[in-house]
Amino acid sequence: MENSTLWLGLALFGATLVIGLVIKLTQGQSKTIDSAEVIDLKRIGATKNGFPISELGRKATLLQFSTQYCGQCPGVARLLARMEYRDGGLSHVEVDITDRIELAAHFSITQTPTVFILDNQGRIRSRISGVPKPGVIQQELERLEANG
Questions:
Q1: 18-29 average pLDDT score
Q2: What CA–CA distance (Å, rounded) separates 48 from 68?
Q3: Which CATH number applies to 30-147?
Q4: What tens digit of pLDDT does each residue of 34-86 get?
Q5: 70 — alpha (psi -120 to 50), left (phi > 0) or beta?
Q6: E strands, 4-148, where?
Q7: Is the bond preceding residue 132 a cis peptide, omega within 30 degrees?
Q8: What are the structural domain ranges in the chain?
Q9: What is the distance between the alpha carbons of residues 77 and 75, in angstroms, rounded to a whole number?
């Protein structure tokens, strides 16, 4: 009986380790999306510096979904704001989904921060769940620009 308990414990530990590694490796990576849905920033309650916004960026919009309890969201917001400052064609906006379960469900958001890269028409072109890895957003913006 003790041997089977030991093996079961080792198997559970191994499975947990593998799952943890998979999650760690996929965090912050970009997933390309070809969505026909046009995001209406006003309808979803997007804000910029605390004020409602409805205008998309000339080149692209970095749409960040956050919650009040997200410890990593402020750092990601600062990163995206710096990118916006450097590139006049970008716009960084945020949506707080703390009390907006229906919005999180609609976009299948299971963690924050989640960043959508929208084209200049408001269609989702990329999705990044978790803190973006270095260079991922820039790569996606370059890909978006190349694909016009």
A1: 56
A2: 16
A3: 3.40.30.10
A4: 777 899 999 999 999 889 999 999 999 999 999 999 999 999 999 999 999 99
A5: beta
A6: 30-32, 47-48, 51-52, 60-66, 90-96, 114-119, 124-129
A7: no
A8: 30-147
A9: 5
